[in-house]
Write a structure and sequence with these properties.
Radius of gyration: 22 Å
CATH topology of the largest domain: Creatine Kinase, Chain A, domain 2
Helix content: 25-40%
Number of helices: 9
CATH architecture of the largest domain: 2-Layer Sandwich
CATH class of the largest domain: Alpha Beta
Largest sheet: 11 strands, mixed
Number of domains: 2
CATH superfamily of the largest domain: Glutamine synthetase/guanido kinase, catalytic domain
Mean pLDDT: 93
């Protein structure tokens, strides 16, 4: 949007504040606010000063940077009263342009590299966001007591472990069993109003309040932006409903963990390069080979927390082996079994919501492209396709 369009939008919506948002190294959302009158050409061109050392992106002795608002990543947040005009921002050194190590800049650079290599025009990503809704969450971090106490939204409080609901019984639960529907619907309605495509939402497998919202396909940078926006919105809407949205990979013992599955495909013009006569094209298989070849290194970015590895256990539809298979939810890479060649894509299942979406999506693309450039064949390496359970 142009400055004139932004000003007109702010005036029409009764905006009183500008909110500048960026994520730190870990993907945590940071925010700075200015009066609406500060919206100017100078603000868009020069930004606002920020201490990047507190973002984990620079040492304190060289931490002066600026937040540069992106006019193409702006929206009116009507969840606030009065509404605010929100910008996602790039971090930059004054007078030098975007800082190359900032997460959003990394995603922008990864996206730009693809057409430069001549392999494809663009990569599309679709993100599944899984989370739990809790009645309350108490976290203790003291010398004498450390841990968390969660009261789930669903399931009677005070149940002993032996009487907990079975963990795999709530997929697509409906009616009175689905107490999180209102939160999901509100989140999806607001996201749609912001121009974020939503594929669907539903109750997930976890019987103590696990939910899923799947976003539509979009270019790498946009998909990462949408993920950051959606996760923040899930937390805020849940809080308005008197609930706590928990995006830990494995918050509840004995219940399924929450993933951030990444659907991926490459396009050249309108052609889906992943489609082939017998399912996936050779290029797509090489892309899968890159993901699996670099799977251990990718873990540092897609499963970055200690809690991530409480999720990656057999029996909960989480991957524990670097392998691929058609319609196989026990593999690290699932090839959806219900897609036609024109809609072919792959799903990378190790990521979870503790990751930084900008870094996770960028790393997946780089790994996949390395597989293509080096002709990594996952079949020849014995990584699949696996038809049976990889837990056995």
């Amino acid at each position: 949007m142009t400055l004139a369009e932004l000003r007109a939008l702010a005036q029409e919506e009764g905006v009183e504040w500008l909110e500048l948002r960026a994520v730190d190294l870990c993907g945590r959302l940071r925010s700075l606010e200015l009066p609406a009158a500060a919206l100017s050409e100078k603000l868009l061109a020069e930004g606002v000063g920020a201490d990047a050392s507190n973002y984990g992106l620079a040492a304190a002795e060289e931490s002066d940077m600026v937040l540069l608002p992106d006019p193409e990543a702006a929206w009116v947040d009507r969840l606030r009263d009065p509404p605010a005009l929100v910008f996602l921002c790039d971090l930059a050194r004054p007078g030098e342009g975007p800082y190359p190590l900032a997460p959003r800049t990394v995603a922008r650079r990864a996206q730009a590299l693809l057409p430069e290599l001549g392999i494809a025009g663009k990569a599309l990503f679709g993100v599944e966001i899984e989370f739990y809704l809790l009645d309350s969450l108490f976290v203790s971090d003291s010398p004498l007591r450390q841990g968390m106490e969660a009261i789930p939204l669903e399931g009677a409080p005070g149940l002993v472990e032996e009487s907990l609901p079975r963990p795999h019984t709530a997929y697509h639960a409906g009616g009175v069993e689905d107490r999180g529907r209102r939160v999901r619907e509100r989140v999806c309605q607001i996201l749609s109003g912001w121009g974020v495509p939503v594929r669907y939402h539903h109750h997930e497998v976890g019987s103590l309040g696990q939910m899923e919202i799947e976003l539509g396909l979009g270019p790498l940078l946009a998909a990462a932006d949408w993920t950051v926006m959606a996760i923040d919105l899930v937390r805020r809407v849940a809080a308005q409903e008197g609930l706590v949205a928990c995006l830990l990979p494995k918050p509840l013992y004995g219940q399924p963990g929450s993933g951030l599955h990444l659907h991926q495909l490459l396009l050249k013009g309108e052609e889906n390069l992943f489609g082939g006569e017998k399912g996936l094209s050779e290029l797509a298989l090489n892309y899968v080979g890159g993901l699996l070849q670099h799977g251990r290194a990718l873990s540092a970015l897609v499963s970055p927390s200690t809690n991530s590895y409480r999720r990656l256990l057999p029996g909960f539809e989480a991957p524990v082996h670097l392998a691929f298979g058609a319609a196989n939810r026990t593999a690290a890479v699932r090839i959806p079994g219900y897609l036609k060649p024109g809609n072919a894509r792959i799903e990378y299942r190790p990521p979870d919501p503790s990751c930084n979406p900008y870094l996770a999506l960028s790393a997946c693309l780089m790994a996949g492209l390395d597989g293509i450039r080096n002709g990594i064949d996952p079949v020849a390496k014995g990584w699949g396709p696996w038809e049976g359970s990889l837990y056995e």
